[in-house]
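Researcher: Go.
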Amino acid sequence: MNGISGMQLSELLMKLYGNSAEAIFFFDRDGNVLGMNDAAADILEEDVYRQLMAGQSGAICQTCKGYMSSDELQTCASCYMSKPEEDISSFQVYFDTKGKGVIPYSASIQTIDQENGIRAFLLRDMTHQFQTQEELTQKRMMKRVIKAQENERKRISRELHDSVAQEMLSSLVDLRVLKYMNISEEALKKLQQTEGSLMRLLDDIRHLSVELRPATLDDLGLKAAFRTHFKWIEKNYGLMIHFDTGLEAERYGGEVETVFYRVCQEAVFNALKYADVEEITVELDEQNETLQLVVKDDGKGFDLHEIEPKGTGLGLFGMKERAELVDGDLTVESVIGKGTSIRLRVPVKRREDA
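Model: Structure:
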């Protein structure tokens, strides 16, 4: 026994039985409960516990809500308790527990006394594992959705830039040629109006193309994409953006760059819409293999504890969601009358070249 006496082993097994977080039941071959540890008693409603301890046949069925078979998620067909001669090393079962509702358990049944037909029934709460698995699945699904969105944005952006915008530009050239032909003053005036309309439409198309997915982000990286975006903001909205960067690398992983660009884009537009300021500061740098973005303003600020902050609130939610996809941390600090600061930090141990 590897240096452990029979008495010591018995004491250890009793401690395991009494202190285990797993629910342990002992049944006879007729399905009657012979005993249970405290963890098992804690998950049972009082009336079920009394019936089990009184040896009432089938009392376990009052708390068991079925097990997972190869055909059904929850079923009572061919109940695991109906075959006293069969040991089952692992299966999933659902119990209606005291104060917690229906909980999934990983269960096993093993005969420990063949002569007397005594079996041990062990239950391990799988709630935490299921929650972790669900969170991981949701995260993976969200990554796929966002990646698909970005790819579609890129496709449409390229199509607008390379096809629609080029066709518009070609039409403008044709109109300008017509201006030098022998046409009436009225027709010339109409051509000039049409040219102006096409120019405005071409600008809108180019802006929409950049908003969908800036080519500079894919071709040149974060710094170039930020500078291009900030120039456009300053030109069209008059918001001055002080951009300070000290990046050690020119390029990062495509997913990381996308998250930083979208978070910055949302943070800047939030400041533009709600902060009531004429300038903001954007900082982008890398320290200790961590890429960090800070967007600060000295504007109105807002109460972080408000249930429904000004606007939809979906902007902050979306930023946090994107940060989590790259194992990042997004923090928001805001004081009414003193401004808002949004900080995104993401570990970037492995960089990808463009």
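Model: The two ends are 61 Å apart (CA to CA).
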